[in-house]
Amino acid sequence: MSTQPMLLDAPLAPAIEPEMRFVKRGKWSRLHIVNQRLAQGLHPLGHAKLAGINETCGTCSHVRIRQRSGRYIKCNQVPMTGGPASDVRLKWPACTHWCPGASR
């Protein structure tokens, strides 16, 4: 027999410490980003400041409803990402791009 170490005899990789693991992206992280932007006076999509008027995205003419495999509410003022990063909530406060439109 050979005294050289075999491939299967190699030590295992060290375990990853919990604080070094990747942050799982999901609903919490999106909600965290939205709350941070609102606290800074920015619209949750991050493209403009809040208008400071008593209106919401639901009354803006820039909001469009995209019907694909589901119902997705988007804003024409931001690039479409094809994912949740460009989704709009109708209850969000209006930004400085707000224009009067039909209430949804």
Question: What does this protein look like?
Answer:
The protein has 104 residues and is mostly loops. The chain has a domain at 48-104. It is built from 1 helix and 2 strands, in the order H-E-E. The protein has a two-stranded antiparallel ribbon. The radius of gyration is 23 Å and the shape is globular.
Shape: globular
Helix percentage range: 10-25%
Beta-strand residue percentage: 5-15%
Query: Which class best fits the helix and strand makeup?
Result: little secondary structure
Q: Which value, in Å, is the CA radius of gyration?
A: 23 Å
Report the order of strands and helices: HEE
Low confidence ranges: 13-23
Cross-sheet strand order for the largest sheet? 1-2
List the total number of helices. Answer: 1
- In whole angstroms, the N-to-C terminal distance is 78 Å
Tell me the number of strands. 2
Tell me about the biggest sheet? 2 strands, antiparallel
**Whole-number average pLDDT?**
79
